[in-house]
Amino acid sequence: xxxxxxxxxxxxxxxxxxxxxxxxxxxxxxxxxxxxxxxxxxxxxxxxxxxxxxxxxxxxxxxxxxxxxxxxxxxxxxxxxxxxxxxxxxxxxxxxxxxxxxxxxxxxxxxxxxxxxxxxxxxxxxxxxxxxxxxxxxxxxxxxxxxxxxxxxxxxxxxxxxxxxxxxxxxxxxxxxxxxxxxxxxxxxxxxxxxxxxxxxxxxxxxxxxxxxxxxxxxxxxxxxxxxxxxxxxxxxxxxxxxxxxxxxxxxxxxxxxxxxxxxxxxxxxxxxxxxxxxxxxxxxxxxxxx
Amino acid sequence: xxxxxxxxxxxxxxxxxxxxxxxxxxxxxxxxxxxxxxxxxxxxxxxxxxxxxxxxxxxxxxxxxxxxxxxxxxxxxxxxxxxxxxxxxxxxxxxxxxxxxxxxxxxxxxxxxxxxxxxxxxxxxxxxxxxxxxxxxxxxxxxxxxxxxxxxxxxxxxxxxxxxxxxxxxxxxxxxxxxxxxxxxxxxxxxxxxxxxxxxxxxxxxxxxxxxxxxxxxxxxxxxxxxxxxxxxxxxxxxxxxxxxxxxxxxxxxxxxxxxxxxxxxxxxxxxxxxxxxxxxxxxxxxxxxx
Lengths: 291, 291
Fold this sequence. Notes:
9 strands; homodimer; disordered C terminus; alpha/beta; about 50% helix
């Protein structure tokens, strides 16, 4: 299947991400429908013009009309939905998703999916510090990365279709990673960073220090405002990989701590020189992006 | 002594911070002189018009003309300078500094200082990710905090004079803390944050991940580019307090790690809810400041 304007797209789950997908794909000229848990969500999206139609009930006939189905719900809800309702999906349809972890979802879904359907995983690395369809905005994709995570069960056509979805929605970079590489990357760059921010924010009541707070503490804790329901689920779905990244960090943090306690200045300076050297690559990249 | 335009001010050490002080105080109409290690530094500052005169040699007569002397050099160099040259300072002069840690410096200096001189500690919480007089800019003080750290050896007049210096240079907030409270605050808000950033940056070669890096990792590692000579000295001068802050963080980080490893979702969520709650205060404050 190729991505063309005659393909009907169903967004299953209409929160911040599902709503933003709906807005972007409708803006591209696709016929976009939606299923959501609450009718108010559907009503809101219809009023905003980001979907053409939608329903809050499981309607086999409605579901059966779509060529592409994109799941934008909590991971466990995605798995349950497939278990309960996959029989209604049109034969030959391509399924994708927005789930932030891949291994623990992809292999489970692919193992139980009907043979005449194809599921290709994707992770749009975009978001906002809020949730709900009312906060959906397709602008969040501008400048963001879109990662497709194929397995050996995927066809080149579905991989290309999935990448095309990312392209038409306006992502900055479309990349391909194995589910394993994806989860390691996200465990290190995103989940570990969130674990650090949360731990820093809770380790001391710092309310009385607000007046003295400069940029460094604010930078490190910006992501400490976090949706606990979603993120705890994602952490646990990537448990082994995340714990591995946390242990890598703890080892170096303990080395820094002991070097300070023992007055081992040379080790402290070596770590600082290495961190300075490595951080430069991230600046260069950012400057490239901005130019 | 009151701060008035007839007071002559000497900046001892003319790097990023000393140069920015010189620029700000010259712009206020003070007669500002400087001592620096290298004559090129003095020549540059004269050419830029941020000092009226200066020297790279120890000249008793030159030093003896100033009413206020502000030290903006490495902490150990500040202590050495006082040991070797305090006899040249004018009787009745007030001495201040810009050192980022206080207890380990203040009590040492005050204990050895001539009885006819008064040293009042200050910490301008401003800076740039670069160094040297060429990068000095008085604009770095705008919106920044200026902390005065008196002890029971200080007079109300010198404390007020020191605060006035911060006011005329354009700092956003002038605050007063004991050296002990200052060091705990800076150990938690700034030094701990830098230890975390450096440890995160060195714990894994993340060069190949640059393309996937979103804001969270960049935010957490922005301060991982660090002047290793200066910061290792400051860490070690605040050793006990900093190690205490690091242990507070490690304890919570270990709790997060074990909760993830054990699938204890409720503990993870509790930590996230607390961090979300606490982080809000820092947003509110920032919004207040911006309005």
